[in-house]
Amino acid sequence: MMSPLKLHSYFRSSASFRVRIALELKGLDYEYAAIHIARGDHRKPPYADLSADTLVPLLEVDGQKLSQSMAIIEYLDDLHPTPALLPADALGRAKVRALAQSVACDIHPLNNLRILKYLVKELKADEDAKNTWYRHWCREGLVSFEKQLGQLPASTYCYGDTPTLADCCLVPQIFNSQRFDVNFDDLTRTMAAFDACMQLPAFQKAQPSSCPDFEA
User: Fold this and answer.
1) At 61, is the secondary structure helix, strand, or coil?
2) pLDDT per residue over 154-180, tens digit each?
3) Is residue 34 part of a domain?
4) Is the dihedral of CA 135, 138, 143, 149 positive or negative?
5) CATH number for the domain including 34?
6) 163 and 128 fall within a common domain
């Protein structure tokens, strides 16, 4: 029997949002521990003493600390295989991981909060320049994502007719992209997958406005 789960999260963190989606899809109860990233609380004790990389999310389970959203989600999928977030076949798993990593490894690292802060504080980029940076790299990444979807059979979600790891990554990225007014023109399958996900209670429960630390 697994001990209670404790998720250290920030409502606006897209990486944390991914894990919240996975937890909700699998119907797992968890304690929500808010870490205010924008205020810098992740770099101060007690969280800085708990987290090796001082990032969120961090999942505490059975006396262990797990970091990195993709690793956490696959851990949860291994322990709670229903509903599965990765296909049963090797090719399908590779396709889903490729989609997920397009977001988590290509789009997100260029546009996360610490990068945007560095652009402003260290490189003296103004607000318009920072937002232009965000929109450029996000749009470019989403266009690539759309092309990948176009090489796959038609489906309700990113891959197949149930949400996968790819959807767990896509939805938070679209949420953040909406905040920065990214151009979604011609991203037909991408936005159809997003819309389908947002019809599901799990995605609604995981979204930022449902978090206890939400700030309008």
Assistant:
1) strand
2) 999 999 999 999 999 999 999 999 999
3) yes
4) negative
5) 3.40.30.10
6) yes
Q: Are strands 30-34 and 5-9 parallel, antiparallel or unpaired?
A: parallel
Percentage with pLDDT > 90 across the chain:
96
Token code pair at residue 141: 């990444």
118 and 195 within one domain: yes
For residue 98, CA distances in Å to 5, 10, 123, 142 come to 28, 26, 32, 13
* 65 inside domain: yes
pLDDT digits (tens, 9 = 90+) for 15-31: 999 999 999 999 999 99
pLDDT at 2 (0 to 100): 58
In a domain, 46, yes or no: yes
Distances from the Cα of 172 to the Cα of 12, 64, 108, 200, 210, angstroms: 9, 26, 10, 14, 13
Q: How many domains is the chain partitioned into structurally?
A: 2
pTM of the predicted structure, to 2 decimals: 0.96
pLDDT in tens, 112-147: 889 999 999 999 999 999 999 999 999 999 999 999
* Domain around 153: 90-200
Q: Is residue 216 part of a domain?
A: no
Q: Looking at the predicted structure, is the pLDDT value of residue 85 above 70?
A: yes
Q: Residue 178 contacts by C-beta under 8 Å, 6 or more apart in sequence?
A: none
Contact 47, 8 (CB under 8 A): yes
The answer on 137 and 59 residing in a single domain is: no
Q: How far is CA 58 from the centre of its chain?
A: 13
Please report which helix (H) or strand (E) contains residue 206, including its range.
helix 201-206
149: tokens are 């979807």
